[in-house]
């Protein structure tokens, strides 16, 4: 034994030196790909980029970037409809609801059929931009791949017997009958009453008096099923009595994930429900697509490392995370727009939107400043979909000016080339911003590699560079 051990070490050292370039599967294996750890500073989970080969339910690697942009647009439209207080596309055609409540005028598929041109291709979905983690459910606990969403509150997953529809998912579908701690929630419960605020869709009631939720995400994606209660667990940490949706009709294909974790600010969100045990805050680092993983932590965080901006309150939607953008500079020079332009639209920060949306005048000034700074560095390339400031080359290969996004209170995102430009194909890279007339959104390309904390208890959002790769 005493002789063998150093020998083994020496061998493995040799092996490491002999193969300095490990392929991506080795990188994934060397990570504890589904790290779940509860300690005195809270809950710590692995977070995967939706297209990372290390994700337990990766999107197809050949997914064209145009699909990402199309779905991003659908997400924006959905968030905008939330803020406009229009009900988002309600899945009124779900046959789970037939006989349980009055059907809306408009006939079968009425309000669900949107004019969106998004093709419902397996693997391509509203969750195209959303990061992925794991969650355990039931007793005994089984583990599910879930997308993480700061733009919605209700957590749900596909549920056996999938009485209307389930899409293909990684691993088995949750079976409530196999859990000793599962309970369906009655229509009279206060949590059932909370659904309208959480999903912006009315709840319904089954003939056996079980509360029915309808979660919809624009893009014709939705989940309808029974509001339920069970023990949720992450590694050694388990939390009984967690309210979530047991989805019996799931349409719109969330990659191969089992469902969605809602982290917005509503009583039904996972964040709020775990707050009594962990504290009312979460932080994450969104990794780039080529990195193995980032993290999601719920609970306390190291306050010293962050610069903060107050969470702005908005009467538009109490559950989304609003911030106040105060300025943008390119290579140290502030954009040539009056400061009031930055506040001309309500602004949210969102984990599932890929491309940041800015007020038109701010966007135009940013586009001009970046194009001017890069004029000698790279030839321009044609417009790509909503992205109109494109260059020949790649974000990593070009000299890209530093872009600083400043927020009220002094928090700053000092963007690296990979946060400024996004590669749309092998030879083209574009400014990863677009103009909007509706709601400005700080998207996830700009947040990648930063640690971002959402401290709801203290009503502040913080940024720190160097959170992950
Ligand atoms: C808790 O675990 C996380 C993740 O492993 C680690 O980064 C952190 O330092 C730990 N905190 C304490 C107080 O042990």
UniProtKB/TrEMBL annotation:
Gene3D superfamilies: Acid Proteases. Residues 1-18 form the signal peptide. The keyword Protease applies. Keywords: Aspartyl protease, Hydrolase, Protease, Signal. InterPro entries: Aspartic_peptidase_A1 (IPR001461), Aspartic_peptidase_AS (IPR001969), PEPTIDASE_A1 (IPR033121), Peptidase_aspartic_dom_sf (IPR021109), TAXi_C (IPR032799), TAXi_N (IPR032861). Residues 131-464 form the Peptidase A1 domain. The active site is at 149, 350. SUPFAM superfamilies: Acid proteases. Residues 85-97 have a biased composition (Low complexity). Residues 81-119 are annotated as: Disordered. The keyword Hydrolase applies. GO terms for molecular function: aspartic-type endopeptidase activity. One of its GO terms (biological process) is proteolysis. It comes from the Eukaryota. Belongs to the peptidase A1 family. This is Peptidase A1 domain-containing protein.
């Amino acid at each position: 034994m005493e002789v063998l051990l150093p020998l083994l070490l020496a061998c493995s050292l040799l092996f490491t030196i002999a193969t300095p370039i490990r392929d991506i599967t080795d990188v994934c294996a060397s990570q504890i790909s589904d790290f779940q750890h509860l300690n005195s500073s809270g809950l710590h989970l692995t977070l995967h980029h939706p297209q990372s080969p290390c994700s337990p339910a990766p999107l197809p690697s050949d997914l064209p970037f145009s699909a990402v942009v199309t779905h991003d647009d659908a997400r924006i439209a959905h968030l905008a409809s939330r803020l406009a207080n229009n009900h988002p596309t309600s899945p009124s055609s779900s046959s789970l609801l037939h006989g349980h409540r009055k059907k809306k005028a408009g006939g079968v598929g009425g309000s669900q059929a949107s004019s969106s041109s998004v093709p419902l291709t397996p693997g391509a979905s509203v969750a195209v931009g959303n990061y992925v983690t794991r969650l355990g459910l039931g007793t005994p606990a089984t583990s599910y791949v879930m997308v993480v969403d700061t733009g919605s509150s209700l957590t749900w997953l596909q549920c056996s017997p999938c009485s209307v529809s389930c899409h293909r998912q990684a691993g088995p579908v949750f079976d409530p009958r196999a859990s000793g701690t599962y309970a369906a929630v009655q229509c009279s419960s206060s949590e059932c009453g909370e659904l309208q605020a959480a999903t912006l869709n009315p709840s319904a009631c089954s003939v056996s008096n079980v509360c029915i939720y309808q979660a919809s995400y624009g893009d014709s994606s939705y989940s309808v099923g029974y509001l339920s209660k069970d023990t949720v667990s992450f590694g050694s940490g388990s939390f009984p009595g967690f309210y979530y949706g047991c989805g019996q009709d799931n349409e719109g294909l969330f990659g191969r994930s089992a469902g969605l974790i809602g982290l917005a600010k509503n009583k039904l969100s996972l964040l709020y429900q775990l707050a009594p045990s962990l504290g009312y805050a979460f932080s994450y680092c969104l990794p780039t697509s080529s990195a193995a993983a980032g993290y999601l932590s719920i609970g306390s965080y190291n306050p010293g490392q962050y610069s903060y901006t107050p969470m702005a309150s908005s009467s538009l939607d109490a559950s989304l995370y609003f911030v106040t953008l105060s300025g943008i500079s390119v290579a140290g020079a502030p954009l040539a727009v009056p400061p009031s332009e930055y506040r001309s639209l309500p602004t949210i920060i969102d984990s599932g939107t890929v491309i940041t949306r800015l007020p038109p005048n701010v966007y135009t000034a940013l586009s001009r400043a970046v194009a001017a700074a890069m004029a000698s560095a790279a030839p321009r390339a044609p417009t790509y979909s909503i992205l109109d400031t494109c260059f020949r080359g790649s974000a990593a290969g070009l000299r890209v000016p530093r872009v600083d996004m400043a927020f009220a209170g002094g928090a700053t995102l000092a963007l690296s080339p990979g946060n400024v430009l996004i590669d749309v194909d092998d030879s083209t890279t574009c400014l990863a911003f677009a103009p909007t007339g509706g709601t400005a959104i700080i998207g996830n390309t700009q947040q990648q590699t930063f640690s971002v904390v959402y401290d709801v208890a203290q009503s502040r959002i913080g940024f720190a560079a160097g959170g992950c790769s």
